[in-house]
Amino acid sequence: MTELRKQESRGAASRRLPTVADLRAWKGRRQLTMLRYFSLDEAAAAEAAGIDIASVPAEIVLDPHYRAVAPTVFSMTGQTHLEMGTPDDYLRWCGNALSRGADAVYCSGSLKTVEKLSREYFPVVGHVGLVPTRATWTGGFKAVGKTAEAALRLFKEVKAYESAGAFAVEIEVVPAEVAAEISKRVEILLWSMGAGAGCDAQYLFANDILGYTECHVPRHARTYRDFGAEHARLQGERIAAFTEYAADVAGGAFPQDCNLIRMDPRELEKFIDGVDRQ
C-alpha cells in the first residue's frame, strides 16, 4: 500500500461523512474547510488532509471511483442555471447527482428553483455576493456589499435563500464585517470565498492553493505550493524522455535484447522451414 493510500485509510478511519444536520449543528462552533478541486488525485489529497467540504465538478463526483478516494468529504456538485435549463431540468439532474453519490447540489438559478428543489428534500446551496453567472447585475467582477444599502440587499438575499429552503450559501467577495454580521443573524450556513472568518467555512480553489492557476489569482486566495513550476519541469522531462526514445529508435539502441522475447532456436528453425514450404 502506498503512503498516500495509508494516509487515506487513517483519515477515513478517524472520521465519518458529515450530514447536513451535522454541518448545521456546527454553525458558530468551528470553521470548516472547503475546496474546489478538479481530479481524483486532488480528492484523495483532500481526504487525507481532512478537508470538510468540497465543490466538485459533476464528472469527478459522479465517477464510480470518487467515493473510494474521498469517502468522508461532504461533496457538493452542480451546474449553473445557464447550463441547466428549467426548474424541472434542475430537479431531474440533481436527483441523478444525489442518487450517484453527491451530498448536496449547487443552484445559481432563481429562488423559485431553489424552493422547488428544497421541497423535494434536496440539500441546496445558493450563491450571493459576486456570483460569476450574475455578475453583470452587480457591476462585474468586483466586491459586493461595500455600502450600507448594498449590504442590506445582500442580507435580504441571504434571508430569501433561507426562506426558500437552502441550507447554505456561498458568499463571495463581500466585506468581512458584513458577512460576519449577516452570519450572526441567520440560521443558514455561510461558506466564505473572500468574505472573512465570520462565516461557517473557508472556501478556496485547489488550483490557487497549488499554484497552477493560469490567469489572475484572486486577492482572497493564498498559494501554498508552486505546482505550475513543477508541471513545467515535468513537461520538460516528458519532452526530453520522448526525444531520447526517438533517438534510440533511430540509432538502433532500442529495442535491446532485454526488451525482447526470444524463441528456442529449434522451434525457430521449424517455423522458418514451415514458412518456406508455404
Automatic annotation (TrEMBL):
Alphabetized GO MF terms: 3-methyl-2-oxobutanoate hydroxymethyltransferase activity
Pfam families in the record: Pantoate_transf
The protein's Enzyme Commission number: 2.1.2.11
Family under the similarity heading: Belongs to the PanB family.
Keywords from the UniProt entry: Pantothenate biosynthesis, Transferase
Enzyme's top EC category: transferase
Superkingdom of origin organism: Bacteria
Quaternary structure (record): Homodecamer; pentamer of dimers.
Protein name in the entry: 3-methyl-2-oxobutanoate hydroxymethyltransferase
